[in-house]
Amino acid sequence: MSAAATNSTDSALLAQLRELARHVQRGSQLPPRLLDIEDAARYLGTSDKAVRKLIASGELPYIQRIPARSPYLLDLTDLDDWIDRNKTRAS
């Protein structure tokens, strides 16, 4: 293979690697929308136990990929809605 062909192949490979790195980086910048109980508790500033109680009482909806088997996942928008519903303002 000639030097020009090798340089062309190397350049094409390098361009593909840069594109792949860009996609990986962009994907890592997406914030998660679903949180496990521990992260949801941290987001709400409360305990895991308190989040479980909110789920059990029906105040927080949840997702389970496999019903009754997989961990609870909570949607950030539901957590934000719960925060908005439970704000107290001084009178």
Number of strands: 2
Distance between the termini: 81 Å
General shape: elongated
Return the average pLDDT rounded to an integer.
Answer: 87
- The helix content, as a percent range, equals 55-70%
Structural class call reads mainly alpha
| CATH-scheme architecture of the largest domain | Orthogonal Bundle
Q: What is the N-to-C succession of helices and strands?
A: HEHHEH
**What summary fits the major beta sheet?**
2 strands, antiparallel
Query: Regarding CATH, which class of the largest domain?
Result: Mainly Alpha
When the domains are counted, the total is: 2
- CATH topology of the largest domain, which one? Arc Repressor Mutant, subunit A
Cross-sheet strand order for the largest sheet: 1-2
Beta-strand content: under 5%
- The tally of helices reads 4
Low-confidence stretches: none
Alpha-carbon Rg, integer: 23 Å
Overall description:
The chain has 91 residues and is mainly alpha-helical. The chain has two domains: 30 residues; 52 residues, Arc Repressor Mutant, subunit A. It is 58% helix and 4% strand. The protein has four helices and two strands, in the order αβααβα. Strands 1-2 form a two-stranded antiparallel sheet. α2 packs across α3. It is elongated, with a radius of gyration of 23 Å.
